[in-house]
Each structure stands twice: as C-alpha cells, then as structure tokens.
Amino acid sequence: MKKRLILSLVAVFLLIVLAACSKPSSSNNSSNSSNDDLSGKVIAGGSTALQPLAQQAATEFMVKHPKVQLTVQGGGSGVGLTQVAAATFQVGNSDIFAEEKPGIDSSALKDYKVAVVGIAPIVNAESSVSELTQDQLVDIFTGKITNWKEVGGKDLKITVISRTEGSGTRVNFDKFALKNQAEITGPSQDASGAVVTMVGQTPGAVSYVAFSYLQTSKDIKAVQIDGVEASAANVASNKWKIWAYEHMYTNSKKETAVDKAFIDYVKSDKKNLEKMGYIAISDMKVDRDASGLVSNK
Questions:
Q1: Do 121 and 137 contact (CB within 8 A), yes or no?
Q2: Cβ partners under 8 Å of residue 21, min gap 6
Q3: Residue 206: phi, psi to the nearest 5?
Q4: Is pLDDT at 145 greater than 80 in this prediction?
Q5: What pLDDT does 32 receive?
Q6: What is the pTM of this model?
Q7: What whole-number distance in Å separates Cα of residue 54 and Cα of residue 162?
Q8: Domains of the chain
Q9: What span, in angstroms and rounded, lies between the C-alpha atoms of 150 and 256?
Q10: DSSP 214
Q11: Structure confidence at residue 190 (pLDDT)
C-alpha cells in the first residue's frame, strides 16, 4: 500500500510539472501579440537601383509579419518621390534627394537613408575597352567620340544607351560622371535590368547601372575610370565618386508603424545588403549633401 501511494504521488507530481512546462510564458505571448499587431498594406516604389534590395527585404519581412502585405515596384526615382508625396505610395524609393526633384515639397517628406550604391559605366563583355579617363567618358556620352577605336578599342561604332527622364541613376551619373553635361539622345531604358540586357546583347554598347546589377549578367563588364576600380571600398572613401544614397521616403502626415518597421528592416540587414552589392551607411567615410558637397565623417 505504501509503495502504491508513493507511485501515485510521483505520477501526480510529473503531471503538474508537464502542465507547467507546456503553458506559454507571458513573454512569448507578448512577442506573438506584437508581431500580430503589425499589419497593413504598403506599396514601396520608385528607384530600380534600390528595387532588388527592397524586394528581397519585403519577402523576408512578410514571412516575419504575415499580416503585412508589401508590394515593391520600380518606375524610377521621380515616380517614387511623386507618388509618396501624393500618398499613393507609402514608401518612395529614390536615388536622389527630394530637394533635387522639381515640384516636390521635401519638407512634407521624411528621408531615411538606407544604403549607398555605386554607379558604374558598363560595356558589352566582348569589348576590348576596360578603362577610360573621365574626359573620354564625357566625350562618349555627349557624342564627341563615336567609335571605340578612338579610345584604343576595336573599329566599332559606339551605341550609347541612356536612362529615361526621372531616373535617379541618370541624375547621379550625369552629375558625378559627366560633370553635369547632358547625354546625347539615343536608345533609352527606364529600368536597370533592361539596360543590362540591352548592353549585353549589343556589340559596341555602353551605358551605366548601379553596382547591384553588375553581377546579374556575364554579358557586361564595368569600366574603370582614371585607373580606379568600381568597388565598394573605393565608394566608401570617395575614391570612386559616382555613387548615391539610397533613400526611402515617407509622407510625414501619413507614415505608419508598418512603413517605419519595413524601412528599419531594410537598412538593418547589413550582411544581405552587402551581398547584393550595396554599401552600408555605417561603412562610409564621407558624407554628401543634396548639392553634391562631400565632407569627411
């Protein structure tokens, strides 16, 4: 009898312990509730240079927050700024400062710098030219040099592929690579991916894309400028001067907790950011303002 009583007491004790262990802790409940509370629809659109990072981050963010619906679109920096100002987009992706876009009230927007991106001139992979001086680059894009043999390449006509108006990549390339000179009128594309495809398929073609697109095709290659390689390290020190901040803008009067949480997530994943060809803000040794003035940190 005494042995049976002891066994019964042990069994009861084990049941109590198991029940206590299976009961969710209040902290876990709080965490789940916090995730569940984050809900809503967000459209983030604009810059195609930022689009790959934004799309990857959106996919991961929606896994972590199932009640959030995120849509990432392209269209160019001008579209991103215009649409977020009109509250059509909740997040406007841009390679340029809002102050640089005519017709935009920058004081009505919140600017979040999430990354830095380098911009590189690219040529068809079969091109014999791998390096240019900045003056040669300017002369090519303004139509003064029309054949690759003029810069040490093959006897082949140069086809300049531009970006459409409203492209932040174009604004920054013209400012920092072409010394504010205007590109010649020719074939143009509004998306970075389309530029890569066209250059890769066109012997003699030249254009420019963000570093984040350099590894997307074996049919293109980046060109050095004045002996400087297009690399993240050279951007960080401003040795490579063709670069831009990647901005995510929100409408000051319409910003939600979901908008801010998504933007914080984009800039917090440094490992993924660098893997995709962007440079973390914290790695930059210099700052640059909307006028283009560079200062040391």
A1: yes
A2: none
A3: -145, 140
A4: yes
A5: 38
A6: 0.83
A7: 24
A8: 41-116+243-296 (3.40.190.10), 118-236 (3.40.190.10)
A9: 55
A10: T
A11: 83
